[in-house]
């Protein structure tokens, strides 16, 4: 496929007039969420790259999956490919499963490493996705976790997108619903009163984000499905502390663990139907290691009253 990571896909989108660059400096709030709300409703639903955000060094990209044109390009098709033809292409590629990943040592996601003085508020250009959210959310991060009974079984390793709220400089909370694979991993860890190592991966190959939001069997690998869709193996590397298998070309990796049997108040949160869910107790995460690319791009997703990016991401 013509791209290997988020950066190369953004270059492809720009070549196809599916990327808008904003060079003017914008405020995190309300500007970024407003862009995320508006972009999917434009005729071509472009991705939007904000190069300067007040108070931060990093750029922000929104709406990467927020149109059928972008979806077609993700699948290696002409941007005006019909939804029906995209579906049939996806079905054909799906049958090529599994295309096993490969592991690399010199991974771009490890260009810079932070183990002391971690402060997510300084590193990430955080913003409330919706006005009455209870805090800052990471809404498009891949969360990687292992089955503690079979830690070397990559097929039982999970890669999923979950609702994550920033709770402090090195603390977050996560919503693992009982039917999620990560909930199985967490249940096993908490039965042993052990922390569950996780890696939170920000800014990813769009096919990985697509697969992480797609329900598959517990013993099926998101990485192997993504390889099938791309027609080539996904490049992985080992995380710094727990040896989790993470995308080698992610923009930012937050590595830590879910604290066993600890819960933190989380929410409210603006949901995809356009309503708010209330506050509730959710598992707490501690981050101890961060690696990232030089000048990392922070990717986030707006969700609210349809249609927004999440509706395209899950529609096929």
UniProtKB/TrEMBL annotation:
Domain of life where this protein originates: Bacteria
GO biological process terms held by the UniProt record: ubiquinone biosynthetic process
Top EC group: lyase
Lineage of the species this protein comes from: Bacteria, Bacillati, Bacillota, Clostridia, Eubacteriales
Molecular-function GO terms, alphabetical: 4-hydroxy-3-polyprenylbenzoate decarboxylase activity; 4-hydroxybenzoate decarboxylase activity
Record EC number: 4.1.1.-, 4.1.1.61
Organism (species): Desulfosporosinus acididurans
InterPro entries: UbiD, UbiD-like_N, UbiD_Rift_dom
Name assigned to this protein: Phenolic acid decarboxylase subunit C
Domain 3-octaprenyl-4-hydroxybenzoate carboxy-lyase-like Rift-related: 104-306
One GO cellular component term: cytosol
Keyword Cytoplasm among UniProt keywords: no
Gene: bsdC_4
UniProt keyword annotations, A-Z: Lyase
């Amino acid at each position: 496929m013509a791209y290997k990571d988020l950066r190369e896909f953004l270059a492809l989108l720009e070549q196809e007039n599916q990327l808008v660059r904003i060079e003017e400096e914008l405020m995190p709030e309300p500007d970024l969420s407003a862009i995320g709300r508006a972009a999917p409703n434009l005729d071509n639903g472009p991705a939007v790259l904000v190069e300067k955000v007040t108070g931060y060094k990093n750029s922000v990209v929104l709406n990467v999956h927020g149109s059928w044109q972008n979806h077609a390009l993700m699948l290696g098709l002409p941007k005006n490919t019909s939804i029906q033809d995209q579906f049939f292409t996806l079905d054909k590629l799906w049958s090529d499963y599994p295309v096993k990943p490969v592991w690399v040592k010199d991974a771009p996601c490890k260009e810079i490493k932070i183990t002391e003085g971690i402060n997510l508020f300084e590193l990430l250009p955080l913003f409330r996705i919706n006005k009455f959210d209870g805090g800052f959310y990471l809404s498009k991060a891949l969360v990687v976790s292992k089955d503690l009974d079979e830690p070397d079984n990559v097929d039982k390793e999970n890669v999923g997108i979950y609702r994550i709220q920033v709770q402090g400089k090195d603390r977050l909370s996560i919503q693992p619903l009982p039917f999620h694979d990560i909930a199985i991993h967490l249940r096993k860890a908490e039965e042993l009163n052990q922390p569950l190592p996780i890696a939170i991966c920000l800014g990813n190959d769009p096919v990985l984000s697509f697969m992480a939001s797609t329900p598959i069997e517990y013993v099926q690998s998101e990485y192997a499905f993504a390889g099938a869709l791309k027609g080539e193996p996904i490049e992985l590397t080992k995380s710094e502390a727990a040896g989790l298998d993470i995308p080698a070309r992610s923009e930012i990796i937050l590595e830590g663990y879910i604290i066993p049997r600890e819960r933190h108040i989380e929410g409210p949160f603006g949901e995809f139907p356009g309503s708010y869910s209330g506050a509730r107790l959710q598992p707490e995460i501690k981050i101890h290691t961060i690696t990232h690319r030089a000048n990392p791009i922070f990717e986030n997703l707006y969700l609210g009253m349809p249609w927004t990016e999440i509706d395209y991401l899950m529609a096929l």
